[in-house]
UniProtKB/TrEMBL annotation:
Protein name in the entry: ATP-binding protein
InterPro entries: ATPase_Atu1862_pred (IPR014588), HerA-like (IPR008571), HerA_central (IPR002789), P-loop_NTPase (IPR027417)
Organism: Alsobacter metallidurans
Domain spans labelled Helicase HerA central: 10-78
SUPFAM superfamilies in UniProt: P-loop containing nucleoside triphosphate hydrolases
Amino acid sequence: MKAGIDMGLTSEGTAALLDLEELLATRLLVQGNSGSGKSHLLRRLLEQSASWVQQAIIDPEGDFVTMADRFGHLVVDAAQSENDLQRIAARVRQHRASVVLNLEGLDVEGQMRCAAAFLGGLFDADRDYWYPMLVVVDEAQLFAPAAAGEVSDEARKLSLGAMTNLMCRGRKRGLAGVIATQRLAKLAKNVAAEASNFLMGRTFLDIDMARAADLLGMERRQAEMFRDLERGRFIALGPALSRRPLPMRIGDVETQARSASPKLLPLPDAPAEGMHELIFEAPDPEPVRVHRPRVAPPPTTADIMAQLARHRPAEPAAEAAPAMAPEERAALMDDILREIMADPDAAFASIAVLYQDFLVRCRIRRVSGEPMGLPTFRRRLAVARAGAQPGQADEAWDKAVAFAAELEEDIQAVFLLIARAALEKEPCPSDDDIARAFGSRSPARARRIIAYMESRGIVVCRTDLRGNRIVALPDLGCETAAADAAPKPAVAAREATAAPDLFASG
């Protein structure tokens, strides 16, 4: 499923679309000198994708807190302990809340420590909560510096390690890093190198222009063009943007930063003598009692935790869908599950990714009512991976589904696959089929799973006179027909040349 994010216009006047699904897998690097429009670009990306994906913004200047009023982001003030920030980040992933980590007012070392703690909490979240998330880091050179500065080595190592985890290992955990920097030369190379998409804005130094040209695959003589780019214009390249360098102009945004570019104001019209008197000789003014409105203190950790517990993911603005009959709603969700499982890569995707895909498809198809919860989705997905027809009604099959619900989550689909074959008197599933139901491509892993299930007394395996495998299910009182469980020749050849599976037995 494709979700095209409108970033503005290309040089040819066509819409500049960013493939959000591809971005989640390949990450993004934005570079441009101060005033080139980096923050405007990030704001456009965040606004356009707010209804599609969870977001976390590391904001060193407090510019993005205005996202809270329009798009419902929670603002996490950095006046928390590092342990509190880690716990808040874990809750953010659990409840799928979009947040802004406001680091305004801290010194550089404090910002690095807080950002490292928060990114660490996102990275270390429980596997069940690895939902897709855009993690936007503005002024990334502060958190992943290329060289040691005035901060302590400990703070630099913590921050650089967190940024490296985000860009290098975050994809498998659903974290898609979007980093923006003023100068590529100031950004750690191992962090910048993991991005596959680039948006390069105005820059003047030769070293930065040459590095930007290298990243975009341009000749050195073309690097001069980066000096001539206007504010808000960028050169795009990457699988989520364009296969060739593409100039684009970033579109308008709905929210504004609290800070703005400086504007010229006329100087006061006063003679030099009068100014001298005002500065050096004027008496101290009488104290004036000014009634200022009370400023609310920053929220406590307990307040933020309570907000996260009450949070519900923002839904895209749309007309209310008409109420559906339960039968129609169930049939529509069955169709969506079939569409998801028709994707060859779906068997190897995590539960969190598939669940996010399912919810987005439900919104697109206007499925009304309360969305299916994650526990229910897990059970339905296990049934779908077993190859059963949606809505299949049979007393023996219902008993198999009920028994599978008591097993470990990882082996439910494998048990139901074997149970379906046994109840329908079909041949025993091959190692390839069992591995696919488990979410693996390794037949050796399938044999390990069967051995584990047999050790638990869930299944009993035997072979006929020809050496074909038969699997019996004692709790259901049935067994599969005999079948050759060996992997297909292509798979066997691939396994023979591959590195040994250290976790497979037999």
